[in-house]
Amino acid sequence: MPYTLKPSDKLIVMSRQMFSSPNDWKEVARFNNLKNPDSLRAGQVIRIPLRFMQSRPAGAKIVSASGDVQLAGSPAGVGTLLAEGGRLQTGANSSAVVELADGSRMTLLPNTLAELATSRNYATRDVGKSASSTWFSGLVRLAQGGLETLAAKAARRATPLQIETATSTVGVRGTEFRVAFDDPAGGSARTEVIEGKVRADNTAQQSGADVPTGKGAVIKPAEKDIKVVNLLPAPNLAGIPAEVIKPPGNWPMPVPAGAVAYRVQVASDEKFEKIVRDLKVEGTGGSASLATLANGSWFARVRGIDPAGLEGFDAVKRISLKNAIWRVSYSSMSLVNGQAVLVWTGQLSDGLPLTGSGFSALLGTDAALTQGVVTAEGNNQQLALGELKPGVYFIRLGSKLPQGGSFDSGVYRLVIPETWGQSQFLLNSPLEALN
């Protein structure tokens, strides 16, 4: 680590105040080829190996967590502290953001396992200042999955912030980049730089390359050369619908421009700190399946994947998921053992018949279905609604979805005549659409 000498600095004094051992000044003098350690000049820069510097652990903390996040096998959430050696894991459809001691943030994507291998602060004295300052050294080991890193720009670092996989090491010289180790069989790792510069090293081949802004590289343990290539531009999402209708809940991808696949990430926040889906859509003309997402508003970002597997720049779009509304094309109601039994046929918006094996009905005395509500369930489009008295009712029918929830019809008006159960035991087309 470089250190600029102050007018009063002496190696022996520094050894007592800053070094691990009072005798380390001898090693530091030899390391810097200082012929006379007592003759130092202000402004002179010497290098002090970190092994001689006093340090203390500087833990990290979780600042965002969504879904299944575990630290050493136990549930972890916002505020959980990570010490050196802590192993953090995210499950499927889960993510976490960790803030390091230097202010850098790392997002663990779904199905990621990472270890905070090194996180330490080293104390030095600044020129012109009486107080000491700290310099950070951090190393994260990525065992599987992917990390998206936003490195603090103004941080003092004793060593570059590093991310290490089984076959590669990426050292931060920039601010925003990704590292992924999702090919354990082949041992390949990849890095993509959105802003700044990183150093990508192939530890097996003892080779490396600088990867600047807008570039990426795949590090393969069996190949010495590291090819640095341009990242794909952000895809154009202008023609992609902002509404995703369930079922089927498929969100179409744009026409590829050099991409052979797409990465789709969905989060509940626009900073993408709470990523709940991380999908890879293979091939061209494909779509991302979002059927298992809850209805509502989401943030989605898409990036193209080139033939080498490198992922390009992001395009972001706000999308909403909704259940499609189907209509009743035929209905009848009969009285069976004192029970009003409703039979209907459903039709989808494209004209195809509604199918399924689980159905429900919500019946009330007001159009908002908040008054006098009763429910019924069955396995086909025939439901017993109970002993209905003459009057005006409102009803909404539903088809159960495999992933949970209901695929609902609109609200219908149901009129039970005064002669019901006396001279009338069958009603044809009793359901009248409100809209």
Describe this structure in words.
The chain is mainly beta. Helices cover 3% and strands 50% of the residues. It contains two helices and 36 strands. The strands form six sheets. The chain has an 18-stranded mixed β-sheet that branches.
Brief characterization of the structure:
This protein is mainly beta. Helices cover 3% and strands 50% of the residues.
Catalogue the unreliable spans. none
Share of residues in helices: under 10%
Based on Cα principal axes, name the global outline: elongated
Task: Count up the helices.
Answer: 2
- Compute the separation of the termini in Å: 73 Å
Main β-sheet description = 18 strands, mixed
The assigned structural class equals mainly beta
Task: Report the portion of residues in β strands.
Answer: over 45%
Task: Let me know the number of strands.
Answer: 36
Q: How much is the radius of gyration in Å?
A: 32 Å
